[in-house]
Structures are given as structure tokens and as C-alpha cells.
């Protein structure tokens, strides 16, 4: 017997947190009856429907995608823009992104149909390092670097300490290329951090997620994660609580 929200997540319908919302909204039935109790447990013999569709447990898949700029990190877009799932049309499983990258941000994005796996990696109580390289406008002084490293105050609170390395700078053009490592996942966080110190981002790329790197992939290309990489990702997240 397993919790209903976990079964829904494992079926690739949604993350566990989203599955809980669907249950509370009365959109889930077990054996024909609407269930709104989050603690409900079901077995493999039970018939589970989400929004009128019976779920079937898919085999879990895990991918690393080099997301190009100009692509939305969602399953679908009502404006008809290209989404990350467009790169997985030949994959039979219904994959979704683990977290997201902004429309104008490129780089490493994980894709899966395993909601429990996604929940572990994106849960705020765990620290998973994400490494970005940003080209910023303005003079990035040592004091501004220290501010970023200590954490800067944003409208949704102060950011956790970051690791910052200035790769290069052009004082004549007033631009700099910077590597920054964070472990939070707030919306547009890196861009907002640099804006807070007066150095808006002109270009942004995520180069590493935990121990994973893009390697030889080009924008729009992907590869499956190995079983060892999946196991190591789980361990990386769950062994680094705040």
C-alpha cells in the first residue's frame, strides 16, 4: 500500500505536491469514488483516476537536456511557444521538467516522469548546487561580489550565500563574465540577484546541476541519465539537508 499522491507522482502525472493539490480539489477518484484525504493509501489493485483519466504506472525515465534560449520550461504553452517537451516527442513516457529555466536562459535541465524524484530534487529543505555562467552589464566590484556571496535582499527575502567567481571583465565596455553557484530555486533568482547589485544579466547559462555537466551536448540535444547518476542524484539531495 502506498500513499495516493505518491502513486499519482510515480505515474508521471504530476509532482507529489501538485498531486496533493489535485486530491484536495476533488479531481481524483479511487475505485469510482472521489477522494480528498491526503493520507489515503492504495494498492496496485485499486483503480485510480485523475481528472477522469485512469492512470497507469509508467517505467521511470530520466534525461539531461541542453535547453536552448527561447524555449519555455513547461509541458505546454497556451501561446504556442516552443516548450522543452517538444524535444521529447519520440519518447513514449510523459516527461516534465525538474524545476525550470527562464525563457531567455539556456543550459542544463533535467526531465523525467518520476514525480517523487522531481520532488526530492526541488524540495527547499535540500541543497542541490546549480552552477551558472552569466554575462552582466556594469562594473562588478569586489564589494558587489561580497554582497552576492553573503546573500542579497530580494522582494521574497534574503538569498542564501552564493559562491561567486569573476571569470573576466571589460571595464571599457563595462561588462563581466561571472560564475555563480546557488542551491535555491526561486523564480529568476540569478537575474534578480545581479539586478540587486546593479549589474543586470545580458546572457545566462546553467552549466552544472549537482555533479552533472552538459559535456558535448549542443543546444536542443539530450541524453538519458545512467542508473548510477540517478542514484547519485538522490543521494546528493537527501544527504545535504539544511
Uncertain parts: none
User: Would you give the CATH topology of the largest domain?
Assistant: Alpha-Beta Plaits
Helix content: 10-25%
How many H/I helical runs?
6
Secondary-structure element series? EHHEEEEEEEEHEHEEEEHEEEH
Architecture per CATH nomenclature, i.e. the level-2 architecture of the largest domain: 2-Layer Sandwich
What percent of residues are in strands? Answer: 25-35%
Number of domains: 3
What is the H level of CATH, i.e. the homologous superfamily of the largest domain?
Pseudouridine synthase I, catalytic domain, N-terminal subdomain
User: Helix/strand-derived class?
Assistant: alpha+beta
Distance between the termini: 30 Å
Q: Could you give the count of β-strands? A: 17
Q: Given this structure, which CATH class of the largest domain is correct?
A: Alpha Beta
Mean pLDDT: 92
Shape verdict = elongated
Radius of gyration: 20 Å
Largest sheet: 9 strands, mixed
EC number: 5.4.99.-
Keywords: Isomerase, RNA-binding
Protein name: Pseudouridine synthase
Domain RNA-binding S4: 2-65
Amino acid at each position: 500500500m502506498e500513499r495516493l499522491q505518491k502513486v499519482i507522482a510515480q505515474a508521471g502525472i504530476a509532482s507529489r505536491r501538485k498531486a496533493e493539490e489535485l486530491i484536495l480539489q476533488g479531481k481524483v477518484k479511487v475505485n469510482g469514488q472521489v477522494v480528498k484525504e491526503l493520507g489515503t493509501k492504495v494498492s496496485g489493485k485499486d483503480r485510480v483516476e485523475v481528472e477522469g483519466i485512469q492512470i497507469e504506472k509508467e517505467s521511470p525515465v530520466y534525461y539531461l537536456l541542453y535547453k536552448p534560449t527561447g524555449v519555455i520550461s513547461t509541458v505546454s504553452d497556451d501561446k504556442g511557444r516552443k516548450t522543452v517537451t517538444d524535444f521529447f516527442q519520440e519518447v513514449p513516457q510523459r516527461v516534465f521538467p525538474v524545476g525550470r529555466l527562464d525563457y531567455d536562459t539556456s543550459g542544463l535541465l533535467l526531465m523525467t516522469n518520476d514525480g517523487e524524484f522531481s520532488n526530492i530534487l526541488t524540495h527547499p529543505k535540500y541543497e542541490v548546487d546549480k552552477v551558472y555562467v552569466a554575462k552582466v552589464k556594469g562594473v562588478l566590484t569586489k564589494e558587489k561580489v561580497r554582497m552576492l556571496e553573503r546573500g542579497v535582499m530580494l522582494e521574497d527575502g534574503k538569498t542564501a550565500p552564493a559562491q561567486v567567481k569573476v571569470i573576466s571583465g571589460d571595464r571599457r565596455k563595462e561588462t563581466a563574465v561571472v560564475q555563480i553557484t546557488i542551491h535555491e530555486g526561486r523564480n529568476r533568482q540569478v537575474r534578480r540577484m545581479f539586478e540587486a547589485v546593479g549589474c543586470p544579466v545580458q546572457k545566462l547559462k546553467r552549466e552544472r546541476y549537482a555533479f552533472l555537466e552538459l559535456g558535448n551536448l549542443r543546444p536542443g540535444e539530450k541524453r538519458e541519465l545512467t542508473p548510477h547518476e540517478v542514484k547519485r542524484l538522490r543521494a546528493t539531495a537527501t544527504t545535504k539537508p539544511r
